[in-house]
Amino acid sequence: MLVLALQAAGAQTPVAPAPDTPTEPVEEIIIAAPEPRYVAPTLRDRIGRVWAPVYVNGKGPLRLVLDTGASRSAVTTAAAERLGLPVATSPTVLLRGMTGEAQAPLVDVERLEIGDLTIEPAKVLVVPDAFGGAEGVLAARGLKDRRIEIEFRKDRIEIVRSRNQRAPKGYSALPIRLIRGHVPTVFARVGRIPVRAIVDTGAQQTTGNLALREALLAQRRLEEASDVIIGVTGDTQEGATSSVPPIYLGDVKVSNAQITFVDLFIFKHWRMTEEPAIMIGMDVLGVLDTLIIDYKRREMQIRLVQ
Predict the structure, then answer these.
(1) What pLDDT score does 187 carry?
(2) Rounded CA gap, 170 and 300, in Å?
(3) SS in 3 state form for 230-292?
(4) Residues 16-59 pLDDT 10s
(5) Which candidate, 226, 150, 218, places its Cα nearest to that of 190?
(6) Radius of gyration of the chain (CA)
(7) Which residue(s) pair with 199 in the sheet?
(8) Which residues contact 167 (CB under 8 A, 6 or more apart)?
(9) pLDDT tens, position by position, 52-109
(10) What gap in Å lies between CA 31 and CA 194, rounded to an integer?
């Protein structure tokens, strides 16, 4: 679920159009990142988000943040204007974000394309620019038979049809449950505390509910600092950020993690307030070497940096 972040500055890398795809250019797309220039079609910015080159009605590519926590894909108001989408005549729907809810136009488009994935027809939300320099988000809806593979050290993302592949040697495999059929969750641990964990590639920071904070306080003292989370709706919520014991994802141990504890609107919406729960953001996922989410297999496969 997307939260606000600042645009990173650095090397500029053009994103090449998908081969053999008839396109109508919108404008040159530049991805800014602190890393050197790479050949890969997708780069992560400084806060660890994953950019995906997406075509809308054959136009683009637009750089969208891959957001496994989002229920619908979205484009910014500026991108919608350049694409010529009929925003003014489209109906509005209730958009639920991490921190609140708001009305947003829902626009019909002919198709969305990334790699060999085509979603047609499709609907996209139109929202203000709250994406840290991206032009929207690519949601997981429509990926029910797909496999997402993200290699963070190679700055590569691939979305392909799942072939029910088992985890490669050296990977840990975790079964996933899908909220509303598309938001992946796994069982994890924060120290000795079992938690239900939402895997959210659109979030900058990892957040925990108040039930987890209470469970940790029963075991140890937390050194907390005040923090603010800004959601895609523009609403804000205050919380306390603290270092926590290692986060365990199957056999993978992530040390030196921090969690912002906040009574998030989205935890209430998904009825995840009574038992300890976290929303794993890119601050944790970004320390992995490779992250694979296989929606057809209902499995997350991960590997730490070797």
Answers:
(1) 97
(2) 14
(3) EECCCCEEEEEEEECCCEEECCEEECCCEEEECCCHHHHHCCCCCCCEEEECHHHHCCEEEEE
(4) 444 454 545 444 333 333 332 222 233 444 556 777 889 999 99
(5) 218
(6) 19
(7) 280
(8) 173, 292, 299, 301
(9) 889 999 998 898 888 888 878 899 999 999 999 999 999 888 676 665 567 889 999 9
(10) 38
Task: Give me the residue label for tokens 């050290």.
Answer: 153
Using CA atoms, how far apart are residues 37 and 34, in angstroms rounded to an integer?
A: 9
Q: pLDDT over 90 for what percent of the chain?
A: 42
- Residue 233's alpha-carbon distances to 136, 138, 180, 245, 247, in angstroms, are 13, 16, 20, 32, 29
Distance CA 208, CA 248 (A): 15
Would strands 258-261 and 207-208 be described as parallel, antiparallel, or unpaired? Answer: parallel
- Give the per-residue SS3 of 78-130: HHHHHHCCCCCCCCEEEEECCCCEEEEEEEEECCEEECCEEECCEEEEEECCC
- Would you state the structure tokens that stand for residue 262, as one six-digit string? 């906040």
pLDDT over 80 (residue 110): yes
Strand 258-261 versus strand 236-243 pairing type: antiparallel
Which uninterrupted H or E stretch holds 5? none
pLDDT digits (tens, 9 = 90+) for 200-248: 988 888 999 999 999 999 999 898 888 777 666 556 678 889 999 999 9
Residue with tokens 């027809």: 121
Cα distance between residue 230 and residue 247, in whole Å: 24
Tokens in use for 258? 């921090």
Q: Which of 165, 116, 166, 117 is nearest to 143 (CA)?
A: 117
pLDDT tens digits, one per residue of 287-298: 889 999 999 999
